Amino acid sequence: MEFTIEPRYFNREESLLAFQERVLALAEDSTRPLLERVKFLAIVSSNLDEFFQVRVAGLQEQHLARVDARSLDGASPEEQLERIGTQSREIEARVDALFTKEVAPLLAEEQIEIARFSDLSFEERDALTASFESEIFPVLTPLAVDTSHPFPFISDLSLNLAVLVRDPEGQDIKFARVKIPPNVPRFMPVGDGSRFCPLEQIVGHHLARLFGGLDVLDSYVFRVTRSADIAVEEEEADDLLEAMESVLRFRQRAARAVRLEVEAGIAENVLDLLLRGLSLTRGEVHHREAPLGLSGLWSLFAVDRPELKDEPWTPTTQPRLAGRSDQDIDFFEEMKRGDILVHHPYESFATSTGSFFHQAANDPDVLAIKQTLYRTSIPDDPAIGGESAVVRHLITAAEAGKQVVVLVELKARFDEAANISWARMLEAAGVHVVYGVSGLKTHTKTLLVVRKEGNAIRRYSHIGTGNYNPNTARIYEDLGLFTTDDDVGADLSELFNHLTGYAMPTNYRKLLVAPHTLHSRLIERIREQGVLGRNGRIMFKINHIVDRSVIDELYDASARGCKIDLIVRGVCGIRAKVPGLSDNISVRSIVGMFLEHSRIYRFGHAPDNAVYYIGSADLMPRNLYKRVEVLVPVTDPRLKLRLEQILDVEMSDDALAWEMQSNGTWHKVPNEKGLDTHQRLQDLALERARGIDQAHPTA
Question: Are 95 and 290 in contact (CB under 8 A)?
Fold first, then answer.
């Protein structure tokens, strides 16, 4: 049976918005603690900002350049922009209605109120006026717009007031722009901190202080989203570090506007002026009922009301790394006893990867440390930031005379500035910092420690699914494998030689490495299971699947009778349960307290006869062909059982799980048993810490 392209694949952009709807459903869930619902509203708002900065901006560029680049489902850029424009506005409307009609009133009932300035008491207004005079007024700069003053640059995601003023003795109405300062809390606390006032309301009430002698007629809040998808031509950049700094400056000052958000009721003449100044059309205007920039709701989530939040989770220490009696664990000796698998955030980053870094940096027998560093964050003080433990250990090792090599990926979107900061700091300490292979992003999460033991050299390896970042390790679900496997260590040595020098890619012994061997080996594994027909089994737990060749191979395996179960958190281009196309393919998504981030690939019947891989790669063209990625096989029978346990829990979930229907829509799995993946994996981590391991009954 022949299929046209439309029912064969699902559109990437619509799939990404469908994921945002699943996150929004968590905010809409009235059974969740109230401040958790506020948190998910902030997450959805931030995710939508990034969607416009990157995905919509890219499509608009294609449309403006008349590039007829068709999507996976065959849609043109113009068709996609129209469809996702409708879908994104529907999500924004749900966000606004949820916040204004349900969440804000519920917060007020809990004495956490977002109040208009005009509704505050005299005492509260006086207090905010004092804060305005001391903290806000000195940094405000009104910018006139007229024949002598061109329309000012409006920075990305900034809050602004469009102000109409008039000379009391004249009739001409003039326009000015006031930027709301980004370094002041979005929602200013009032009194004891349980009431908040939007910052733009405070500024709006005091506009007369900025326009002395003029009548302030009206003001309207607006917000601009700009493109953040600026490419770097590496071949033309002598110094990639300087090139990325230039890109960041360009992004801040010249990136094209892609969305204009305005408060409901904005005057038509003001809207027209904004559109002319920003070179936007009416189709790019988004009218909002809720306060603009709800990503600022994180300040409300920070309120000290534990009864309105989920019970905080304290990660356990992986039992193999817990130490014995009063002695600290010897990481090297423990790794020599066998491979170790850690599962974040259920198991601690500090007592696993952090401990490994610490011991490697201070061990006199360690000769070299080689690491990739992809995504970091900007700390308030770089000396004590979230990655400070990792960076400090690397600096310590370099100062002790060890060979320390760190591959910093400068092109990690939205973390470029932080990565540049860390690169400068490491270079100043004598660490060898390199920036990867020309034309490729280095996305793999790998660490290699080389140690002299007697007359021999031993390699200690770590390969993970998540970044070397202790902050995200508390909220991202990820896996890490520690191993002394000689083949894995040799493969990592050759990979680092390729990344840091001129060595050509090799035929790796065990690792699957993109863009060289990963795609072809995965295709081989899929075909092996497809040939087995009804005896074939495939299960993937991944973030995204978009690559057409992989999807087609999965369709072919399904047609042969192979059972395929996919757990896909976000973008999903494959269609499930389509008669004659994907009858044997099921797709589900887990969305909850933690961000599902690990990648597990299983081929065959679990667990004894199955082949398992974990690593950094999703099934997207960028991962398979445009990035350096690594998957490592997990061969220890006990660790294979652990991976199977994770997959079993997620396939049994009926509290957080969604399932894709044959038409591409997602339906919530009926809650019958109440099995919550994140709660169940917390319970299992606690049981392991107490010496009870359901995956290893004999341990």
Answer: yes
Whole-number Å distance between alpha carbons of 6 and 12: 13
Q: Give me the pLDDT at residue 699, please.
A: 33
| pLDDT for the residue numbered 435 | 74
Report residue 253 CA to chain centroid gap: 24
- Contacting residues for 281 by C-beta, under 8 A, at least 6 apart: 275
Count CB-CB contacts under 10 A for residue 146: 11
pLDDT value of residue 501: 82
Task: Say yes or no to pLDDT of 192 above 70.
Answer: yes
CB 19 within 8 A of CB 568: no
> What percent of the chain shows pLDDT beyond 70?
89
- Round to whole Å and give the CA distance between 487 and 105: 60
**Residue 240: is its pLDDT beyond 50?**
no
H-run or E-run covering 44: helix 34-50
Please check whether residue 670 is in contact with residue 654, taking contact to mean a CB–CB distance below 8 angstroms: yes
Burial of 79 (0-12, 13-18, 19+ CB in 10 A): middle
CA count, 13 A, side-chain hemisphere, 631:
28
Residue 675 backbone phi and psi in degrees, to 5: -85, 110
Classify 137 in phi/psi space as left (phi over 0), alpha (psi -120 to 50) or beta.
alpha
159-166/173-179 β-pairing: antiparallel
Give 417's pLDDT tier (boundaries 50, 70, 90). Answer: low
Residue among 633, 616, 599, 632 nearest 445 (CA): 616
Spatial separation of the C-alpha atoms in residues 70 and 655, rounded to whole Å: 37
Active site residues: 443
**Residue that wins the pLDDT comparison between 479 and 382:** 479
Q: Is 339 within 8 Å of 481 (Cβ atoms)?
A: yes
Phi, psi at 47, each rounded to 5°: -65, -40
CA 496 to chain centre: 26
Query: Of 358, 283, 376, 361, nearest to 88 (Cα)?
Result: 283
**Does the pLDDT at position 476 exceed 90?**
yes
